[in-house]
Design a protein that fits this description.
Strand order of the largest sheet: 2-1-3-4-5
Main location: membrane
Strand content: 15-25%
Largest sheet: 5 strands, parallel
Keywords: Kinase, Phosphoprotein, Transferase, Two-component regulatory system
Pfam families: HATPase_c (PF02518), HisKA (PF00512)
Oligomer: single chain
Number of helices: 14
Catalytic activity: ATP + protein L-histidine = ADP + protein N-phospho-L-histidine
Protein name: histidine kinase
Length: 554
């Protein structure tokens, strides 16, 4: 069993492969320069000689040779020559390894060097450069393929689709025979199984079975070490622990090469990816491992994100079902309450009208109390019915004269204001204000707001209504303000004041009657008209409610 240790050969990359065989030779020793030039020319190279560092740099820049052979002292200080470099060192001369490594592909010989050996070393350097260029091209192609896999993963929140993308992407990009992926029992991700196989090969088992605990332990160990388990050839050790485990798990899988890649987040792994060949050996390279680990990180993030979104969608669906059940319940209850209440109020009207005979004064006062509470109950039922129908009802849009509408609301509520000794006034703006709206629903809005203002204003107080037109980026706005000098609303209640059934704490303590639906209904109706309902209140000083409506309608 082998583990990827991150080691790779040092200094073996070149900028490109040259089609024309040419060489730059730089040497301050004229005899050695001539000998080296002659040896390379005899081997078919077009040679550009140089006697100093400046000439060497100029030739490298202008001729783009296949190789450079240079006296070590002349090559010192070169920055990324871009071609394979063969250095000629004196017998006791030391080599600056750090500088040579920065040149990517380089070698050295000790002077004096035979012509045959020189040509052989040059040919070897060029071959290494060509192989390195080919390898770099393959890695770049792999990087692009796996970049596409990561992009596909990021474009979806479906956990199964993410898993299918990664197994297919790994299989096709890395040219393996099997790719198998599974998540563990983990609350962060759903249970997922996905696999891809080269056509004609059997499927691997969907479950880990008795191997699950051992696989989870191995995945957590690899994840903690930021490592993978990479085996280039199981045939070299057919009885290794991993080879036996794979055979026992799959029954039919006889892998040649294998990678076990942990998928994790935070402190622990949440799944594992198996890549395997069953026909040819695969020498796993460091770039391949690094790219697979990068994609695995995207897989973990995508699965966790998708799982959270799925959970949120389930909760949202449940909340919608609960809201529908609540609405249906309210509609049913309203229907059941309205029927007996209609009968009660009808008989009450008959009694008060004397249909059953004269009513004593003491009894009449009792009947007045019953009548007032019946009216309150009817309004509460109507508010609840409005709430139950709010989301599904359409707006009956038509031109509405705001001034006339407010005059109707004031006339309707004036008896309530007078009974509480509250001054109620309406000051009409200088401009005629007409909006496209549902007149009945707007009347309900202003009736709820004004009635609230009257209820929360003590005796001797005042409620004032004004209307005007203002300009905005989207066109004209009709603005109606209802201001009172009543109780006001505590600051901590303000964020919740438009919530259904919510009542301000001072309203409850002051025993002001109400259901907590009036402002919620008004807010919903104004929002559906694409308007705004704003509230400004100071405890003990009063409240101003502002209604903004687009003149052109919703």
């Amino acid at each position: 069993m082998n583990r990827w240790n991150g080691r790779g050969s040092v200094g073996e990359t070149v900028a490109g492969v040259q089609h024309a065989r040419s060489a730059v030779v730089a040497d301050s020793d004229k005899d050695r320069l001539a000998a080296t030039t002659a040896a390379l020319a005899a081997a078919g190279f077009n040679v550009f000689p140089a006697v100093d560092a400046a000439a060497l740099a100029a030739h490298l820049q202008h001729h783009n040779p296949s190789v450079a052979v240079a006296e070590s002292s002349l090559a010192h200080g070169l920055r990324s020559p871009g071609v394979p470099m063969l250095l000629i060192l004196a017998s006791q001369e030391s080599l600056d390894l750090q500088e040579v490594e920065s040149w990517r592909v380089a070698d050295y010989v000790i002077s004096p060097v035979r012509s045959g050996e020189l040509v052989h070393r040059v040919e070897t350097l060029i071959g290494r450069a060509a192989e390195r260029a080919r390898s770099r091209g393959e890695i770049e192609a792999l990087r692009e393929s796996l970049r596409n896999v990561s992009s596909a993963i990021r474009e979806t929140n479906d956990p199964q689709l993410i898993s299918d993308h990664v197994v297919r992407g790994f299989g096709e990009a890395l040219n393996v025979d099997h790719v198998w992926f599974a998540t563990f029992r983990d609350e962060r991700v759903p249970s997922i199984r996905a696999q891809w196989n080269r056509p004609g090969l059997p499927l691997l088992p969907a479950r880990l079975g008795e191997s699950e605990n051992a696989i989870i332990e191995a995945a957590n160990r690899l994840w903690a070490d930021a490592d993978v388990l990479a085996v280039a050839d199981h045939r070299e050790d057919p009885d290794s622990k991993i080879a036996k485990a794979l055979r026992e798990w799959s029954g039919e899988l006889n892998p040649v090469s294998t990678v076990l890649l942990p998928v994790g987040e935070g402190a622990t792994a949440l799944g594992i990816i198996l890549l395997s060949t069953v026909q040819e050996r695969h020498d796993w390279t460091r770039p391949e491992i690094a790219l697979m680990q990068h994609v695995a990180g995207n897989v973990a993030h995508g699965l966790i994100q998708g799982h959270l979104i799925s959970a949120q969608q389930r909760v949202l669906h449940q909340l919608r079902q609960l809201d529908k059940a609540k609405t249906d319940f309210l509609a049913t209850v309203n229907h059941e309450l309205r029927t007996p209440l209609t009968s009660i109020t009808a008989y009450l009207d008959m009694i008060q009208d004397g249909s059953g005979g004269p009513v004593p004064d003491g009894i009449r006062k009792m009947l007045d109390v019953i009548a007032r509470n019946s009216t309150r109950l009817r309004r509460l039922i109507e508010d609840m019915l409005t709430v139950s129908m709010q989301d599904g009802s359409n707006l009956d849009l038509k031109p509405v004269d705001i001034a006339k509408l407010l005059q109707v609301v004031v006339a309707t509520l004036r008896p309530l204001a007078e009974s509480r000794h509250v001054s109620l006034s309406f000051t009409e703006g200088t401009d005629d204000i007409e909006v496209t709206a549902d007149e009945a629903k707007l009347e309900q809005v202003f009736t709820n707001i004004v009635a609230n203002a009257i209820k929360f204003t003590p005796e001797g107080g005042r409620v004032g209504i004004t209307s005007s037109v203002t300009d905005s980026e989207g066109g004209g706005l009709a603005l109606v303000r209802i201001a009172d000098n009543g109780l006001g609303i505590p600051e901590h209640d303000l964020p919740h004041i438009f919530t259904r059934f919510y009542r301000a704490s001072n309203a409850t303590s002051a025993a002001v009657p109400g259901s907590g639906l009036g402002l919620a209904i008004a807010h919903d109706i104004i929002s559906r008209h694409m308007g705004r309902l704003l509230l400004d209140s100071t405890l003990g000083a009063g409240t101003t409610v502002s209604v903004e409506l687009p003149v052109g309608g919703p």
